[in-house]
Each structure stands twice: as C-alpha cells, then as structure tokens.
Specification:
Blueprint: H1 2-34, E1 48-49, H2 64-69, E2 78-80, E3 83-90, E4 111-115, E5 128-130, H3 152-155, E6 160-169, E7 177-182, E8 185-186, E9 188-193, E10 196-202, E11 208-211, E12 219-228, E13 241-243, E14 246-247, E15 251-256, E16 259-270, E17 277-287, E18 296-304, E19 307-315, E20 324-333, E21 347-355, E22 358-367, E23 372-375, E24 378-381, E25 384-385, E26 388-392, H4 406-418, E27 423-425, H5 433-442, E28 445-449, H6 465-482, E29 488-492, H7 501-514, E30 520-521, E31 536-537, H8 551-557, H9 559-564, E32 572-577, H10 588-597, E33 601-606, E34 614-616, E35 624-626, H11 655-662, E36 666-672, E37 677-682, E38 692-700, E39 703-710, E40 720-724, E41 738-746, E42 758-765, E43 784-788, E44 791-795, E45 799-804, E46 810-815, E47 818-819, E48 828-830, H12 837-841, H13 844-850, E49 856-857, E50 861-868, E51 871-881, E52 887-897, E53 901-910, E54 919-927, E55 932-939, E56 952-959, E57 976-979, E58 981-985, E59 991-996, E60 1001-1006, H14 1010-1014, E61 1027-1036, E62 1059-1067
Helix pairs in contact: 4-5, 6-7
Keywords: Calcium, Glycosidase, Hydrolase, Signal
EC number: 3.2.1.23
Protein name: beta-galactosidase
C-alpha cells in the first residue's frame, strides 16, 4: 500500500514537473518569437505612426478639364504604383529580412508579386475561412501566443510579406508636396522610402496616407513595405470571410501644391418643398509652406457635365506656416435634379484655391442633391418614404480574393440592380473608394459600415480603454473618407461586437460630430429606448412572433411585432435577414410582404450577395472552389462561406430569381380573373412607369396562345392602375391549364441593363371549367399476371412489370423491350433528403434519431387481383422500422392497365405524427440511359414550397445532369413545385410520364441519390453517375433560412401525420 502511494506521489510529481516544463517552454517560446517583433504589432493603442488624418477621398487636378472627370487616377498629379513588386514571404517575423528596406539590400533574386493582390492567392501562406473566431491564439493584445499544434498558426505564427519597388518622382512635381496612399493593406505595415522609415499603419480597410516629401527626390526612388499578417488590430477584423493578406488595393503616389485643400465636405440642404437646394461646403486649407499665406480665395463651382450651373467664392484669412484654415461657403441651386437610387443624377462640384486670378489648386467630387430625414418612425429621402431591398456584399471574387477590380465591381452592381435591389450594406468594413463612386453613379442606397468586428470575443472590447481609440478611429476614417457620396445614407458603426458599451458610444459621438445629416446604425445596441443610434435593428428575426413569447422576446424575435409596437419610436432595419446558405432563403416572399406592409419597416439586406469561394489550384490535378478547410486551414468554419444569392462567379443560383421577383418594384394583383381585370401597382418611390413597356401572354398547357401590349403610361410613383386583358374564359378548352403572364421590360438602355431587360413579371392561373372524363371507347390491350419464383409478373402487349414479393418493390419495368429500372428500382417510400445546413440545424436531428435515412422494411404482403381483362391491381402492405421504435406503415395500390397506365395510390401512417420529415413521396432508380427530363411545372431552376415565387409555371426540359444545382457541397436540390406532369426518356424516346392525380405534385430527377450527395464533400468529387433518380413528392419540406435564422414557417413544414396521395405513370409506346 505504501509502495502504491509512493509511486502515485512520484507520478504526480512527474506530471506536475512535465506540465511546468511545458508551460515554461511555451513561455520561453513565446518570448523568443517576440524578441525581434516590433512593439507596435501587439500594441492596440498604436493605430498609426506619421499617418495623415482621414479626409475626403480627393485628388488635385492640373486644370478644369481634368477636374470635371472626377477621376483621381486620370490626374496629372497622380501616379499608380500598382504592378509588379519584389516580394519575400516568411511564416515567422523572426525570419524576415530585417534590413530589406536599405537601399543597398539586393532583392534581385526575389520573386515578383502583383500589387494589388492577396499573397495567399499568389501561393504564399494559407488562406483561412472563419465566420466566428480568430485564426491565431486569442490572447489580447498579443497575436503570437502559442496556439494548439493543430492550428495553422502554430507553424505560420505571424507571416510577414516584404515588398520592394522603385518609383519615379516627376520633375514637374518639384516644389510641391508628395504623398503616398495605400487604399488597403491587410493587416498592418511599416513603410520606408529610400532607406528611411516613414511610418506605420493598422486598419486594413481604410486608406493609409503618408507625406513623404522629405524622403523623396526627383527621379528614381525606392519604396519598401513590411506587411504583417496579424497585429493587435486584427482583433477588430473578425469578419465572416476569407482571411487574406497583403497589399490588396491601389497604391497611389500623388502631389499637391504647398497650399493644399486637404479636406472638404458638401452637405446638400433641400427646402421645405424639396425643390430648391443649398450646398453648404466646409473645407480645410493646409499651408505646407515656410511662410504665411494670405489674399487667397476659395471658389466653388457646380457643373452639369461641362455646363457651369452656379459658383460661389469666399476670401481666406491668413494661414501661418504649417497651419490649417477652416473655410465655409455655400451656393444656391434652383430646382436641381435630385439624386435617388432610382434617379442617380450627379453634378460635379469643383473647388479651386486661387491667388487673385491664379489657380493654385483644383479638386472636385461628384455631388448628388438629396436629403435624408426620419419623420417619426418613417425613413425618407427627399421627403418621400423609401424602402431598402438589398444585400450584404463582401469584397471577394474567386480568382482574386479581396483584390477586386473595377470591372468586377461593375459586374456586381449590374447583377445587384438587375435583381431589383436598391440597397447594399458594406459588410463589415469600408470598401474600396471606387465602389462608393460607382454606387453614386448606378443608384444604390449604401449602409456604409466601419471596419470593426470582434465576433469571436463579442463584448470583450466594450469598455477596454486600450482599444477605444482604434474603434473610434476606424469609424472616423469611414465617415471622413466617404462623407461626400450621395449613395451613403446611413453610417454603421460595425458588426457583432456585442452591446457596444462606452467605446461604441464614443464612436457614435465622433460620427455625429462630423456628420449629423445621416442616421446611424449598430445592431448590437438593440431595439427600444436603450438604443442610442437612429435606427432600431435586429438580424435574422422571424416574420411572426414565436408562440407565447415574453414581451422582450417578441421585440427580439418578430419583425411583425417590432414593426407594429407603438412603444418603439424608430425605423426598423433588418441589417441581415433571409440567410442564403446553400439550398435555403425560404419565406423571402413573406419578408417582402412585411416590408411593403409596415411603414416603419425600412427594409433590409439579405445575407449575402455572393458565395465567397476562392479557387485552390495548388494541386493542378484537383482544382477546387474552396470553402473553409479547402487549403488545410485550421481552425475554419467549413461550408459557411457559401451563403450567396449568386454563386462565386456571379452566375445565378435559384435564390436569385426569387429575390428578383420578391423585390420587384412593379406588382400585379388580380381584381377579377373571370373578367380579365388586374391592378398594376408602381412601387417605385420616385419614377413613373413611362420608362417601361408591358405585355401579356396567355398559355394553354404551357404553350403560348395569345399575347399583346399593355398601356402603363403615367402610372405615377406609389400609385395604381386597373387594366383589362382581352380574354374570355368561356372560350377556354375545358380541362386545359391556362396561365396569364404579365411582363415589364426596360424601354431604354440603362447603365446596369440593356433595353428589353425584364424587371418584373407576375403570373396567374386562369379559371377554366372542369371537364368530365368520358369513358374511352378505344379498346385497351389485354393484361395478365403470373405468380412464380418469388415474383409477380404483370404483362401487357408492349410492357411488363415485375414485383418482388419479398420487399414489395417493382424490381423491373420493361417497355418496348427496354429495361427502365435498375434492379428493385421501382417506387419506394422516401421520407429523407441529403441534408443542407438548415436541415442539419433543424430537422436532421429528428431524422437521425428515428433512422429516417435507413429504414428497414419488413417483408411485404402482396395481393393481386385481375379486375378485368385489361386491368390488374397489385396491393402492397409494407412496414418499416427505424431507430427508437419509429414505425412506418405504407399501403400502396398499383392499378395497372393494358395501355401502360399505372395509377398509384399511397396511404402512409407513422407512430410519430409530429416528426418533421424531409418529404412525403416515393423514389425510383432508373437506368442511367434515361437522360432527358421534361415537365410542366415551376422552373426552370429548382424551387421549393417556401421559395417558388420567382419560378413561373411552364414547360421546361433539360438533361438529368443539368437538373443538379451546382452547390459546391452536394446536397438536396433540383425539386420542382406545382408539377402537372413530368417525363423521363432515353435517346430513342422510350420512357414514361408521371401525372398528378390530384392537382399537382413535386418532382426532381437527378443523376445521384440523396445518399451519394450527402457523403460527398466537393461537387467536383461526385462519382460518375450510375442511375437517374426520380423523386415524386406529395409534399416537400421548405428550405427555411435557419442556418442563421428562422426555421421553415408552419405552412411549409411537413410532418409524419397520416396522409394519402397518388400519381399516375404512363409508359410511352
């Protein structure tokens, strides 16, 4: 006993010593790693050294002609430093080339890297995808503490990119000031010019600008930048995106005179009638010279194109050397055309600093005349209540990561505008400066968000004084940089940093001290009296209240409650809603109806615009459009990167037509379909429908029968007009299916769409008298059956069916001598689907606990009856067992006719009637030669019960492979709602048609089974197809949006209650 005790004591001592040694080793390692680390990197209070204060995005121009372009990069005083730089990358700061900035340091053997770019995209280091959390060890303010060994950061502790290039300073710039602007560097960097240290910057999403006059000379110069992947500022950059690094935006060298207009702000103020305007201008003049200046003036001129509209001038006081002078002036404009997202009219304001008649400096900006007000709970632009219908957008393209080009920005705006969006939230940082200029031009209402998110630590920084300056600085930089953009209508303080605390209150005060003309937003402030911002906000609220919630829960949970609660006094904005991850975004229609219905519901931004996949081509034999973990990155948040209404390449996903239809600004409602009377509503807030053309088409069984034009002239904003479509239901063929479709297209070219682009449509099923089916007088071929060898064979003239008596399945269908099914591939009850993210969070737990995926069917009871010479009925009684005593009873009757018609009636009963199931239907496995799929139902893209508004009923067809929706992670897909019939054929036309017995069914035809889809990680890893898998459904569970939001609404939920349904199979002969 004493020996055992002694051994135990020794073992404990050894464990304690080992633990102590490990901790000591870790501490020593952390110390060694930091011994050569610049102290600024882990100092949260160091937000920059020698960095110039943020100001309006501007550029001096050589003359008025240049200024009227308002193109900073076309200025004679601007030089792009984009292009190839010499580059070196190391995984640890201790391994960086410390002296690389010296002019005699040889970098000739270094490789080139393109600027702008992310170094990970160029093959250096590891891209990370994170939604919540950090890629380094959390140990604020440190970023180099030792993480677990499985972390990628264990081996790549804090990568450093060393950049070098030469540049030229023109002789014509001599005597002026020389500046360099980095529009985006992730995450922090030191700068040297000609071997001299210039400064340091953090905040990867706002411009870092330095005055390098004293460091440069005319002619050739050398520039060096040392970029760190992590700084203490990285704790505020925990956004839901790929974590990519390097110099990823433009680098610009530029010059100004020694008397410089260093900042200005233009505030447009409309009169009480919103007709005439005053432009109030505040500017700051900086004297970089060695002597005082005086007798100067500042002239402000407004141009419409090249035409001068008005001008104003103010004399300046003396400005001492190194001093700054604030200046104010204004001009009046009679009846300017107003800027809105629908009418994005822009003028050009030119500011000129003059000495007598001599022009010292010229700067300019585009100006939109608009005024934002909140009237009670109503958000208005130019006195008119508006609605925001839009998306959250990250800066990301699969080929370039975060180094997004202007052409890609324009493509984004085209797709967004074509989808009927008028709003974008810049989640969750300041975007490239060019983006705001384009949004002014294209007509977008921006919620401009600051580069602040600490989702992985939430409330950790609410009261931390060491990081307060950084939070305030990032908000100030956001406002100062983009304050002159008409498109910016709301300032957002950041995202998912908890409740904000005193640090966010300080940021709010700083914003208001600069700009009181725009409302403010921060979702973390909450809803109600405690919210100091101007908008109430809550992300991912369901439309309806949960059952029996407390009053507080109602406010937090329900859009409807929040929009109608009289105790709330502010507009309500859904900064994120309708989460679009993979196969999702259910009930957008109901959100759209709520936005239109409730005046105080401002609207919101879908999460999110695009999937954020990036290409991993590091293995040339296996390129993948990666999600988290696709580069071996750890930790990661895996599939969560794919949440867009469009794919990473901006091709439309099934979510896109749904968004386009729900957000459309022209709607049609049926007044009286018997008489052809409809009501057209113009939901635009500022334009009539004169810029559009309308037409109608009437189809019979999916084929166009008649069409015509509709007069929509002079339907003014927010008004309606009743129109009559010339048709008579009395002339319709009884029993046929008629639809009326109205289409609205652009009458002229727009920046974002060509003439003829369809902006809105609506479809209505027309009333048709039912037809009584008369008994066929055509002789039906005879039919017989045999019961032998464990099978029941039913044979007709050109076809035969074989029933497996052991399991009750149709094991074979031979039609015209061709086998249609795989073995035992006939209709089997199918209640499961390959789960998508929403299912995993919601219903899949129930599917797993009941064994819904792998039900075990007991031997069947089969009864055969010859009804007539041409009809045989086969009744099959089946019982399936799952897990935890889950039981399914399935009774099915096949009424088989000699002409190849098989009428199928199903009765289902389970012992868990409240269990949410994926679908109520059957599945068939067909031979893979059956590759042509046609149907009369909703399409052409997949649609589901809670995501089908944008899918018209029509005739559609494709190959089976084309029915597979290309989600990067394979999953349930391809469903079509409201199907009257569907057919599957091979290349010779052999096959069959499935018809709805009672109104409509849901159908999908895919090259893979749910099981194959569920077990495959990447789409490109799907195996070669071995079958065509046909699902015939009575009901299908809605997709919801509960990967980050509400579950499917009750009307779109399918449970295992007793049910009966039928369909008919008609073989082609």
């Amino acid at each position: 006993m004493k020996l055992r005790s002694s051994l135990t004591t020794i073992a404990l001592c050894l464990i304690t010593f080992a633990t102590y040694a490990a901790n000591e080793k870790k501490l020593l390692a952390d110390t060694n790693y930091r011994k050569d680390l610049p102290p600024e990197i882990e100092n949260p209070e160091c937000i920059g050294i020698n960095k110039l204060p943020a100001h309006a995005t501007l550029m001096p121009y050589a003359n008025l002609k240049e200024a009227l372009t308002a193109n900073r990069h076309a200025s004679s005083y601007s030089r792009s430093l984009n292009g190839n730089w010499k580059f070196n990358w190391v995984a640890w700061p201790i391994d960086r080339p410390v002296d690389f900035y010296k002019t005699d340091y040889d970098v000739s053997k270094w490789k080139d890297i393109a600027v702008p770019s992310n170094w990970e995209i160029k093959g250096y280091g590891t891209p990370f995808y994170r939604n919540i959390g950090y890629t380094f060890q959390k140990d604020f303010p440190r970023v180099m503490s030792t993480p677990p060994e499985k972390y990628t950061a264990f081996k790549e502790r804090n990568p450093v990119g060393s950049y070098r290039r030469d540049f030229e300073v023109p002789a014509t710039w001599k005597g002026g000031r020389i500046f360099i602007t980095f529009d985006g560097v992730d995450a922090g960097f030191f700068l040297w010019v000609n071997g001299k240290k210039v400064g340091y910057s953090v905040n990867s999403r706002n411009a870092a600008e330095f005055d390098i006059t004293k460091f440069v000379k005319t002619g050739k110069n050398m520039l060096a930048a040392e970029v760190y992947q992590y700084t203490s500022g990285s704790y505020l950059e925990d956004q839901d995106m790929w974590r990519l690094h390097g110099i990823f935006r433009n680098v610009t060298l530029w010059s100004s005179p020694t008397q410089h207009i260093q900042d200005f702000m233009i505030k447009t103020d409309l009169d009480a009638q919103y007709k005439n305007a005053v432009a109030n201008i505040s500017a700051s003049i900086k004297n970089y010279g060695s002597s005082a200046i005086g007798s100067q003036s500042l002239v402000a001129s407004l141009y419409d194109g090249n035409r001068l509209i008005t001008t104003a001038q103010v004399a300046l006081g003396s400005v001492k050397p190194g001093g700054e002078l604030p200046v104010k002036l204004n001009f009046k404009v009679n009846s300017p055309l107003k800027w809105t997202a629908e009418t994005p009219k822009l003028y050009t304001t030119v500011l000129q600093l003059k000495q007598g008649s001599k022009i010292i400096e010229t700067v300019s900006t585009r100006t939109g005349f608009r005024e934002i007000e909140i009237k009670g709970k109503i958000f208005t632009v130019n006195g008119v209540p508006i609605k925001l219908k839009g998306v959250n957008r990250h800066e990301n393209w699969p080929e370039v990561g975060h180094a997004v080009t202007e052409a890609q920005m324009i493509r984004d705006l085209e797709v967004i505008k074509q989808g009927n969006c008028n709003h974008i939230r810049t989640c969750h940082y300041s975007d490239d400066p060019r983006w705001y200029e384009l949004c002014d031009q294209y007509g977008i209402y921006l919620v401009a968000e600051a580069n602040v998110e600490c989702h992985g630590l939430r409330n950790r920084f609410n009261e931390d004084s060491t990081i307060k300056a950084a939070i305030v600085d990032r908000n100030v930089a956001n406002v100062q940089s983009f304050k002159n953009h008409a498109s910016v209508i709301i300032w957002s303080l950041g995202n998912e940093c908890g409740t904000g605390g005193s640090n966010f209150l300080a940021a709010l005060r700083a914003i208001k001290s600069i700009d009181k003309t725009r409302p403010t937003h921060y979702e973390g402030f909450g809803v109600g009296a405690q919210n100091p911002a101007d908008l109430d906000s809550k992300m991912y609220s369901p439309i309806l209240p949960y059952e029996n919630p407390s009053a507080k829960q109602k406010v937090l949970a329900s859009v409807e409650f929040t929009a109608t609660d009289k105790s709330l006094t502010k507009p309500f904005y859904m900064c994120e809603f309708a989460h679009a991850m993979f196969n999702s975004m259910g009930s957008l229609k109901e959100y759209g109806e709520a936005i239109d219905k409730y005046p105080s519901l401002l609207g919101g931004a879908i999460w999110e615009f695009q999937d954020q996949g990036i290409w991993n081509r590091r293995d040339p034999n296996h390129p993948i459009l990666a999600f988290g973990g696709g580069f071996g990155d750890f930790p990661n948040d895996h599939y969560f990167i794919h949440k867009g209404v469009v794919a990473s390449d901006r091709s439309a996903k099934p979510h896109y037509p749904e968004m386009k239809h729900v957000f459309q600004w022209i709607s049609v409602t049926a007044e009286n379909l018997q008489k052809g009377t409809l009501r057209i509503r113009n939901k635009f807030q500022f334009i009539s429908l004169n810029g559009f053309k309308a037409s109608y088409t009437i189809t019979k069984n999916g084929v166009a029968e008649s069409s015509g034009n509709i007069n929509i002239d002079n339907i003014l904003p927010l008004t309606e007009k009743v129109v009559n479509i010339p048709y008579k239901p009395s002339t319709f063929t009884p029993g046929a299916v008629y639809y009326l479709r109205l289409s609205f297209v652009q009458a002229n070219d727009e920046l974002w769409a060509k003439k003829g682009y369809e902006v809105a449509s609506d479809q209505f099923e027309l009333p048709v008298s039912k037809v009584l089916v008369a008994a066929s007088t055509t002789a039906i071929p005879p039919l017989s059956y045999k019961d032998a060898y464990g099978n029941i064979a039913v044979s007709g003239k050109l076809f035969s069916l074989l029933f497996n008596k052991a399991n009750g399945a149709i094991s074979s269908i031979t039609n015209n001598g061709v086998e249609v099914l795989q073995k035992d591939g006939g209709p089997k009850l199918h209640l499961w689907r390959a789960p998508h993210q929403e299912d995993d969070i919601y219903a899949n737990k129930g599917w797993d606990s009941t064994g819904l995926k792998q039900l075990v069917w007991k031997p069947a009871t089969i009864t055969v009856k010859q009804i007539s010479a041409s009809q045989v009925n086969v009744a099959v009684n089946l019982v399936a067992k799952g897990k935890n005593n889950f039981t399914v009873n399935h009774n099915v009757v096949y009424e088989i006719s000699g002409d190849g018609t098989i009428n199928v009636n199903n009765d289902i009963k389970t012992n868990a009637p409240d269990l949410v199931i994926a679908r109520l239907g059957v599945r068939l496995f067909l031979n893979k030669s059956f590759q042509q799929f046609n149907y009369f139902g909703r399409g052409p893209m997949e649609n589901y019960s809670d995501r089908k508004s944008g899918s018209d009923v029509g005739l559609y067809g494709s190959t089976i492979m084309q029915q597979l929706t290309p989600y990067e992670k394979p999953m349930e897909c391809g469903n079509h709602e409201d199907v009257r019939w569907a057919s599957v054929k091979n290349s010779t036309g052999n096959g069959f048609k499935v018809l709805a017995n009672d109104n409509v069914i849901q159908v999908s035809a895919l090259p893979y089974s749910d099981e194959e889809l569920a077990r495959t990680e990447y789409r490109m890893d799907l195996p070669e197809s071995t079958a065509t898998v046909l699902n015939i459904g009575y009901k299908t569970l809605g997709v919801g949006s509960n990967s980050c939001g509400p579950t499917p609404m009750p009307q779109y939920t399918v449970t295992a209650k007793p049910a009966s349904f039928g369909y008919t199979i008609k073989l082609f002969h």
